[in-house]
Structures are given as structure tokens and as C-alpha cells.
């Protein structure tokens, strides 16, 4: 066999493979018939009815707790959701209620060297289970970074920042814990899920 014939066969094989892949892609993305129409109708109907966010979106009208900090900072905890993976995700909003810009205190990161090394965060937050007599610290990834909002520096007056923190889950029977964050007042929150 010649080299030219081998090249032609290879090009033909590649072209056939690409054509087959494109054909499968078109079939996979093709019209969905009645199911596709039903999905569009349902989605537009819910928008027209003006329904609010679903409970799965984790935001409620009234916060679980409002904690006051220094320099006009306030943390409103909007949800504390127990996940199937064995952890609790706490969501909230950090707001500057003061009249001037506020520097986020470095104390919020806590004092553990590994967490402090990764920059400003909410790594100093804890959940306290009074009945079980346990304290739960913010989880970390394999590189020691806290599983929480990080990179916080300055918040302008009236500005809000959405924040989250993940903790190991207390036992299923524990539904009420005390949330603590350095320089902030503490507050009792309910864990859902």
C-alpha cells in the first residue's frame, strides 16, 4: 500500500466519524414534540401567574435571625438547610447599615492559621448544639480553604453581599442551633430539611 492511499483512508474515516457525531447531535437536540410544548406552556404559565420563589430556592421573606456586628454591619440569616451529603448550608446577607463604608473585620475569618492564610472569609462562624453539647466549625476543602464566602474586604454604606457557610450536620433530631460569628451578636436559628 502507498502512503497516499493510507492518508485518504484515514481522512475518510475521520470525515465519517465527524459526520456521524454531527448527525447524532442533531437528533439529540431535535424537536421534542408534545413534551417540549408542555414544558414551555407550564413555564410561561407560572410566570404569568406571578408566583413567588419556591421554598427550594432557600430564601424566605423574614430572616431566621438578624445579628448586629461592628461598624454598622448586620448579618441576616435567611436559611439553614440540611443537605443529604451530611452538611448544613447557612445562607444570608451581610449588609452595611452604617452611614459610611465599612471594612469587613479580619476577625470574621477566625484565628485558625490554615483558614487565615486563605484570605478574609466567614471562616470563624460556628454552630452550637446546646442539647448535644457540640460546636460545629465551618468545613474546609482539601487545600484548607473554608467552605464559605471569601474575598470580603469593604462594604459601602447601604450595600449588601450574599453570603454562605457550610458546616457538618448535627444529628437529625437537632433542629435548633445557635449561630456565632466573631464580632457579631449570636442568634438561634432553625435548621430545615
TrEMBL record:
<feature type="region of interest" description="Disordered">
    <location>
        <begin position="31"/>
        <end position="64"/>
    </location>
</feature>
<protein>
    <recommendedName>
        <fullName>Secreted protein</fullName>
    </recommendedName>
</protein>
Amino acid at each position: 500500500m502507498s502512503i497516499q492511499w493510507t492518508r485518504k483512508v484515514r481522512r475518510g474515516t475521520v470525515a465519517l466519524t465527524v459526520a456521524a457525531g454531527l448527525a447524532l447531535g442533531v437528533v439529540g437536540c431535535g424537536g421534542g414534540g408534545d413534551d417540549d410544548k408542555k414544558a414551555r406552556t407550564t413555564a410561561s404559565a407560572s410566570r404569568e401567574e406571578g408566583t413567588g420563589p419556591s421554598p427550594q430556592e432557600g430564601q424566605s421573606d423574614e430572616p431566621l435571625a438578624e445579628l448586629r456586628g461592628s461598624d454598622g454591619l448586620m448579618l441576616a440569616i435567611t436559611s439553614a438547610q440540611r443537605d443529604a451529603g451530611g452538611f448544613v448550608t447557612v445562607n444570608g446577607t451581610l449588609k452595611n447599615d452604617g452611614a459610611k463604608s465599612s471594612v469587613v473585620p479580619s476577625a470574621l475569618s477566625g484565628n485558625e492559621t490554615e483558614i487565615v492564610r486563605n484570605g478574609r472569609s466567614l471562616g470563624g462562624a460556628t454552630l452550637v448544639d446546646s442539647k448535644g453539647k457540640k460546636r460545629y466549625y465551618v468545613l474546609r476543602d482539601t487545600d484548607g480553604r473554608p467552605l464559605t464566602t471569601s474575598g470580603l474586604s469593604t462594604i459601602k454604606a447601604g450595600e449588601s453581599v450574599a453570603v454562605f457557610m457550610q458546616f457538618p450536620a448535627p444529628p437529625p433530631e437537632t433542629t435548633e442551633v445557635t449561630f456565632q460569628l466573631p464580632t457579631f451578636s449570636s442568634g438561634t436559628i432553625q435548621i430545615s430539611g
